[in-house]
Fold:
Amino acid sequence: MEAINRNFMLLIIVLIMPFLGVAQNQANSDFWQRVNFGGGVGLNFGNNAFNIGLSPSAIYRASDIYSVGAGLNFNYSKFDDAELTAYGFSFLNFINPIPQIQLSADFDQMRINRNFDNILNADDNYWLPALHLGVGYGSRNFVFGVRYDILYDDGRSIYADPWSPFVRVYF
Structure:
């Protein structure tokens, strides 16, 4: 029960942050000039393995320091006797204390569907939250870095580790 309360409080904090940044910049009415679109695409091949991931997103640059956005996520993997489909949404928060450094808080909520061809493993379907805190280096439209999932669950996550590298590109 305590984990649910902690997750709920983190979600509330992540959802409130965008309103704080937007409220500070109400004088500027050039909304669409401050919106950038981008995201990520991943494609992996291996020995009896295949993975594709798509994550389009849009961000609103509330100021030179703060950006907020939302995105969609899709991931499909097939390996040996298992198949995984994951889809969901993200809330994105970026802070640039200096132009080259980006701090981020990304909340993901994904629906996971695991299907196994053998009888030793049971199929599984569930919702999985993730709250990634990260730091990156780059320019206004291109940033690379590392992030950590503070809600990581080793038994349920689709990722092998709570640490993950990222590359963000926006136009």
Summary: The first helix runs from residue 2 to 23.
